[in-house]
Structures are given as structure tokens and as C-alpha cells.
Amino acid sequence: YFCRRNTTTPMNIKDIAGSDIKPLLKYIEEQTSKDNAYLYRTEFKHIAEMASSHPSITIDEYKKLLADSAKSGRLQTLRRMSYVDKIYDYVNKGTLPMVQHKRTDLPPEYTSFISMLRSRLDSSVSSPRTIENYVDAVWSFCAYLVAHNVLSFKNVAEPLVVSYFNGADGKPRGRTISRRIRNAILRCLDLWEEGVGNRVVSMLPDYPSGTTIYPGLSKEESAAVEKVLINDSNSVPYRSKAICSLAFYAGLRESDISGLTCGNVNFKKKVIHVKQQKTGMEVTIPLDVVCSNLIVKYVRLERAPSQSPYIFIRKKTKDRLSRQDMYEASIDVLSSAGVHAGKGERKGLHLFRHHMATSLIETGANPAIVSAMLGHRDPSSALRYLNSDLELLKRCSLSISEFT
User: Fold this and answer.
1) pLDDT attached to residue 246
2) 331: which DSSP letter?
3) CA distances from 343 to 68, 97, 217 (A)
4) Given this model, what pLDDT does residue 214 score?
5) Which of 62, 101, 201, 310 is the most exposed place for a label (fewest CB within 10 A)?
6) DSSP state of 127
7) Order of strands, edge to edge, in the sheet holding 265-266?
């Protein structure tokens, strides 16, 4: 599987195009899927085509051309550039890429555990995404046990659990994974003899909850974003502005925005009524005039004729928007506003949802009411927005002199 080429000088794409990557493609297909191998093969063909007309350009110049001339979305372009890097690393260094391996068969006890977990999560209001997150966590944990010849929870030893979370396999795990595995086992305790499941739960690390300082929008940044949403003179598509306005003014999640239909929006009563995909809770939220105007402008001026029930659709396929499409909408607005545009700075629609929550709390709104508007199951969930705002924490702090 390893190529013998190794050079420190920059490679031209003709060197890449003239290499044999069949072992790489075989590895990708065996470890992941034929579809994934096809994507690598397609990118290699693009490299070969470019090499036939521009043999002297380097791989970095090729990537720049790819970024400048890409017709697909930003994330799709980044994915293609990632394939280029991985092909380059294979040809230049003989390095095989890290991949998400296929799931192997598990012993009957673990298979029954995952089946029971799916069934019980399906019967609740958990979203498909939440279910898969739990299944992924449990499957990885069980696969690690199998790799160490532990085929039943009866035989699990604490040192093995500790090594799993400490990253003995090169992948350290944290609080989220521990919590998912813990909750999954507690949901399925009747699968094992009394005490077996609880014994494994007691071995899982109990990470402190802690408080994360969430990088929200400052007043200046939120003003810049609002200016982009309101101003018609910029080049940001109405679709992107309408999507971001629903997160910025109404606090909707991306999954609920992408799933909006005409039946969810009442323009006369100026409200939005949705059943949240993440929690299954029904919420009614005021429809801000900015949101209303942007939705109307998008439908009238940009939306392609379609029988799709969804308000926001793709131009070509007319399908419901994906998570990538929603993320790119946030990038459109943030880039135009010059906000969170740097590498490593937090982006995405949740940044706007977070701003809406902190703005309400800052004006004195009861956190429980804010939680209701956001559709949280736990009324105390909005407190995380208070905890993430340093200015609000300073205002709520008490002087120690009062206790001396």
C-alpha cells in the first residue's frame, strides 16, 4: 500500500498524475466504501486533466486554481482540496489517510444492546441525528472492548475503560462520549443481569460539567450583521439573509429553518409555529418584520419554481437544504459583515441563535421564558447563555465585602 517516492521539493501536478494510486483507491474502498473511493478517483482524473494542459504548475497552485474557479459550494471545494492533499501525501510520502472505518460485526450481546438502544430512542422524541450520535458512541466503545477480547459487559475491567477514554487507540474521549455511553446503558439496564450495567456505568469517567465561554457576537459585530440583513445594496443572496435572519431574530435552529414550510409561517398573525426536529417540542415564535420581508423577497426573486413544500430549496435539484447549505448561508452573511471571518473563529447559524438568547437575557428577560422560546426541554438550559457572557456574569457577581 505504500509508495516509495519521497522528496522534499515541491511536486508538479504532472508528477502526481503520473503516479499509480490504485493501492490507495483499494485501501479507501476496503476501509470505507466504493463511493468514497470514487471521489478520490474523480479528483485524480481532474489532476490528470490539468496536468495535460498545465504540466508545470505545483500542487499548491492547482489548489488555488481549484478554489478560485470552483462552481460548487465552499464546503464541497474544501472537501476536494482535502482529497488533493491526501493524494499528494500518498504519492510524496507514502502516507495513507486516516479514515472512518467500516463497522465490523459485534458479539450478540453488543448487537442486542445497540438494537435495544435504537428502539428506545426511536420511541422517544430523539432526532435521527441524536440517535446516530448515541449509536456511534456505543458502537465504538463496544468495538474497543471486542478488540481486547472482552465479549460481555460481565468481563469489563476498569483499567480497560480508563485506557479507552485516555486514548490508548490514539483517540482520547471526553465528557460528551462518556455521557452518551452512560445514558445508553441506563436506558437498557434490563438487558443484563442486575448490577452488571450499573457496574460498567460506575467505571465511566465523571467529567466535571464546567462552563465554556462561548464566543458570541459583540454589540459592534451584531450591528454589522444586522446591517447586512437589512441592507439591499450588498451582494448577499436573499436566501442566505432570510435563513440567517430566522436564527438572528427568532432563534430557530438550522434543522428547523431548513424544514420550514408555508404552513409554519403565518404572515398575517406574524408568528412561526414549528415542531422542533431536535426535541419534538412545538413552539410559537414572533415573526420579525425583517424575517418576513426577506422570506418574501427570496420567494419572489430567487426561489426556483418548484412543488417542494419547503420554503428554502436548492437552485438546481430543488431539494431541501442540507446542513452544508445552511452553514454556507451563515458564511455569506458573516463574510459580508466582516464578522468572525478569521480562520478558527466560530461560525454557523448557532452563533446567531446564541446572540438572540443572550440579547433577551441581557434586557432582563427571565431565562425560563427564553428557554421556552428556544424550545429547550429543560427550562434551565438558557442559563448556559448567561454563563457564557462575561459582561452578564460581572453584573450578577456579588462583592465579598457584603459577607465580611
Assistant:
1) 94
2) H
3) 18, 23, 16
4) 56
5) 101
6) -
7) 265-266, 271-275, 282-286
Q: What is the CA radius of gyration of the chain?
A: 25
Start-end of H helices in 338-403 = 350-362, 367-374, 383-387, 390-396
Q: Which of 85, 11, 7 is nearest to 55 (CA)?
A: 11
Query: Residues 338-342: contacts with CB within 8 Å, 24+ apart?
Result: 338/224, 339/217, 339/221, 339/224, 339/225, 340/215, 340/217, 340/221
Residue 172 grid cell: 482520547
Q: Cell triple for residue 225?
A: 450583521
Which three cell numbers, joined as nine digits, stand for 78? 474544501
Note the pLDDT of residue 210: 54
Residue with cell 466535571: 208
CA gap 194, 315 in Å, rounded: 56
The C-alpha atoms of residue 90 and residue 86 are separated, in whole angstroms, by: 6
Residue 9: count other Cβ atoms within 10 Å of its Cβ.
8
- Count other C-beta atoms under 10 Å from residue 56's C-beta: 9
What pLDDT sits at residue 376? 66
Grid coordinates given for 114: 445497540
Residues of the chain with pLDDT under 50: 1-8, 211, 387-400, 402-404
| Residue in the structure block whose three cell numbers are 505545483 | 58
Report the alpha-carbon distance of residue 57 to residue 63 in Å, rounded: 10
Instruction: Give the pLDDT of residue 229.
Output: 95
Give the amino acid at 191. L
What is the CA 4 to chain-centroid distance, rounded?
A: 37
Grid cell for residue 210: 464546567
> Do 84 and 39 contact (CB within 8 A), yes or no?
no
Under 8 Å between Cβ of 337 and 330: no
Cα 346 to Cα 60, 327, 343, 381: the distances in Å are 26, 11, 9, 21
Give the three-class secondary structure for 208.
Answer: coil
Q: Which three cell numbers stand for residue 84?
A: 488533493
Amino acid at 9: T
Residue with cell 471486542: 146
Phi, psi of 329 (to 5 degrees): -60, -40
Chain centroid to Cα 209, Å, comes to 21
pLDDT at 290: 94
The model's pTM is 0.54
How far apart CA 115 and CA 121 sit, in angstroms, is 10
Report DSSP state, residue 104. Answer: P
